[in-house]
Specification:
The complex is a heterodimer of chains A (444) and B (294). Chain A is an alpha/beta fold and 444 residues long. Chain A is built from 20 helices and twelve strands. Classes of the chains: A alpha/beta (444), B alpha/beta (294).
Chain lengths: 444, 294
């Protein structure tokens, strides 16, 4: 292969890596080129090795790299097939949009709908589509005060469509991408392959994981929570050399006649943090029940001394029940029986936090890191924010793991109030949980 | 230092010192590239897969001294780079010698070079191992960037010390903390997974040539089953596999049996939680059964 052609291929491959979130800088490109020159291009496995060790710098990026390499260096026939499939998908998407625009007309005039709204319409259940179509048909021939409706009624129809489609967009949007498919065949193939790998669990919304996949996912959760446990124990015995402690140094060295032979340094040492876990088990969180239970079990079995509470309308202290359980199933048997009435109720964080202060106030200290796992949809938001502020003043940090996607936080007014008193992270996938736990040294 | 040998020859050199590599693990390839490109080598992977061992082996292959900096939280420049021999300086001052100047107290005689400076000041090629870099603070990592970028340090009282011979730097990480992009970009990266059964058998046969073939296979397979099927708090390392095999060898065993698995399991699983998990979810008999099924 000529050098210029090698450069071009390499840059195209790096483009594919970048689309997967792997950032590659110029020095790394040079390293890869030098490496290839040194090792040669005869052995495909070695070429992959050279590119991997020079372009990928984190274990999280390895899966994407491996799939990208497989796809990019696949035989031309396979690449052509993927490209064709991607183009067909795009064509089918465009056709669907165009057809729907034709269908949704009011007295011959196209309705003013965005592409996303039309995509939502396309994803609707058939009966809902039919209902909207019938509404449109009836409106076209409808009358007001005995007079046939004309074009001036179109904005009313559009508003009704906007409202209905917005409702469905919210409902469906969490589950499916309402965006057009990519035209890039190789990229689509890498994305498809990634969905079949372990990483797929990391990026999948936890409420969508089917029961048969939970054993694998629960292993991953335990792996992730272990990270927190090890960080905690690592901080135990170690202090940090800081500035010279003159007072102690002078006192220590009096025995040497004031000659400063031994120096003492101020140690900056954080006490071992205590964890409190507060899990929301109200109706809006029902879909995350499995995740909540696995997370509670993972943390309780790995992090010693953690206190666990659940709340919906009020607070329940469940640590003793969790501690007694040796297995996940055991935990379910001992705790679920008591919790079954609480699951699915309304949410009142204010009452729950108030109870936390009143009944378990002694657990809130400067050593406490409070984890809240909730979507933040609660009654008495302002009161809850007041109690959250009160809690924050007593503890080291409050980490809020919010299962609601961040883009929707603006729709829940109370969340804005809560964010002022805690660090809030979107957390509805394992990848997001992993990111939060990676940041844990900063707050434990 | 650049190597004059090819990658194949380098792989043979590793084999000569008893280090087993496989094409799939890419250890030889990455080490070779790191040396040729004169880049530090960042090795990540779970504990006990042999990250530190690579540095030891490479120092053997190059007959170069291994300088090791063990990282921990709170490690600072004084412990990693240099410190003045404060007591000696004081004694010198108290001797009240005629014509003693301030600069006399800041010479090499009063300097205590720590591992990083030792690596830079070494006259000959050396292997500098910065072990468990993920345990240090972000500030130390930033400081390290400076040293690894230029291979020189400035000591205010003495001036700049430039590496006489660039050491080959190996950094290891257990992934407890994400390292900065800047540090990762400067390195050639290697991720090591726990060894395959075949590789672990080869390692066992190399380290314990007397080990019966059947026992070596069973031990390697059993450890692989434990790593894969149980969510252990601490997975058995290669060193622990070797200890277990050696213990069984000393006891004159030629194959695994449930009684001896029970008796020696604490060489592999070293916490009560892991042992409880093993007996709850597997047990010795099932473990042996699993090794047959693989």
């Amino acid at each position: 292969m000529e050098r210029s052609e090698l450069d071009r291929h390499l840059l195209e491959f790096i483009g594919l890596l970048r689309q997967g979130g792997i950032s590659v800088n110029l020095t790394e490109v040079q390293d890869a080129l030098q490496g290839l020159t040194l090792i040669g291009l005869e052995d495909k496995s070695r070429v992959e090795g050279v590119l991997q060790c020079t372009l990928v710098k984190s274990v999280n990026q390895l899966s994407w790299f491996q799939e990208a390499f497989r796809v990019f260096f696949a035989p031309p026939e396979a690449k052509a097939t993927w490209q064709k499939e991607a183009q067909e998908k795009v064509a089918s998407w465009e056709q669907g949009i165009a057809k729907t625009r034709e269908e949704l007309r009011f007295q011959g005039e196209e309705l003013n709908l965005t592409e996303e709204q039309i995509a939502t319409y396309l994803s609707l259940p058939e009966e809902e589509k039919e209902r909207l179509k019938q509404f449109l048909e009836r409106s076209e021939i409808g009358t007001r005060n005995g007079v046939q409706l004309d074009h001036s009624f179109q904005p009313v129809v559009e508003r009704m469509f906007h409202g209905s489609l917005e409702y469905w967009r919210r409902k469906l949007g969490e589950d499916m991408a309402l965006t057009p498919p990519g035209e890039e065949g190789l990229l689509s193939e890498v994305q498809r392959a990634m969905r079949h790998k372990e990483l797929h669990y990391l990026t999948k919304d936890l409420k969508d994981i089917p029961p048969e996949e939970w054993p694998t996912v629960s292993k991953l959760i335990r792996k992730l929570t272990r990270r927190l446990a090890t960080q905690v124990s690592r901080r135990l015995g170690q202090g940090k050399s800081g500035s010279l402690d003159m007072r102690r140094t002078v006192r220590e060295n009096l025995r040497y006649g004031g000659v400063l032979l031994k120096q003492n340094y101020r140690k900056r040492r954080k006490g071992k943090p205590k964890f409190i876990l507060l899990c929301d088990i109200s109706g809006s969180m029902l879909k995350y029940t499995e995740f909540i239970l696995q997370f509670m079990y993972g943390l309780t079995s790995l992090v010693t001394g953690i206190e666990t509470y659940v709340f919906a309308n009020h607070l329940m202290y469940i640590t003793p029940k969790l501690r007694g359980a040796q297995t996940f199933q055991g935990m379910l048997n001992t705790t679920l029986g008591d919790l079954v009435d609480e699951f699915g109720g309304g949410t009142n964080l204010a009452v729950s936090l108030e109870e936390l202060h009143k009944e378990y106030g002694n657990t809130l200290t400067r050593r406490t890191v409070l984890f809240i796992l909730s979507d933040g949809q609660t009654l008495e938001g302002e009161k809850a924010a007041f109690y959250l502020q009160k809690t924050r003043s007593k503890v080291r940090e409050i980490i809020w793991l919010n299962t609601l996607p961040e883009k929707k936080w603006k729709d829940v007014k109370a969340l804005e109030l809560f964010q002022a008193h805690c660090q809030m992270f979107e957390c509805n996938t394992l990848a997001q949980l992993q990111e939060v736990l990676k940041k844990s040294p900063g707050f434990v | 230092m650049k190597l004059t040998m090819s990658l194949d020859e380098f792989e043979k050199e590793l084999a000569k010192v008893g280090y087993i590599t496989e094409k799939e693990d890419r250890i030889a390839l990455t080490a070779y590239l790191a040396i040729q490109l004169e880049k530090p080598m960042l090795i990540a992977g779970p504990p006990g897969v042999g990250k530190t061992e690579i540095a030891k082996v490479l120092s053997q292959v190059f007959s170069a001294p291994l300088i090791r900096l063990q990282c921990y939280e709170g490690l600072d420049e004084n412990k990693a780079l240099y410190e003045w021999n404060y007591q000696r300086q004081l004694l010198k001052i108290q001797m009240k010698e005629e014509g003693l100047k301030e600069e006399d107290l800041f010479g090499l005689d009063y300097l205590l070079p720590r591992p990083l400076l030792q690596g830079l000041m070494s006259d000959n090629f050396s292997v500098l191992l910065i072990d468990e870099i993920d345990k240090t603070d972000a500030e130390f990592e930033a400081f390290l960037l400076e040293v690894l970028g230029e291979f020189q340090v400035t000591i205010p009282e003495m001036g700049t010390i430039k590496a006489k011979q660039r050491p080959f730097v190996i950094l290891t990480s257990n992934g407890e903390r994400e390292l900065s992009d800047a540090l990762r970009r400067r390195c050639v990266f290697l991720y090591i997974n726990p060894p395959s059964v075949d590789k672990e058998v080869k390692i066992l046969r190399t380290k314990h040539p007397d080990l019966p073939d059947k026992l070596a296979f069973q031990v390697a397979k059993a450890v692989s089953v434990l790593r894969e099927k149980l969510t252990l708090q601490k997975q058995p390392s290669i060193a622990e596999t070797m200890d277990w095999a050696k213990a069984l060898l000393v006891m004159g065993k030629t194959e695994l049996d449930p009684v001896w698995v029970d008796a020696t399991l604490n060489l592999l699983l070293k916490s009560k939680e892991d042992l409880d998990l093993f007996y709850r979810e597997m047990g010795a008999e099932k473990l042996i059964e699993e090794t047959k099924g693989m």
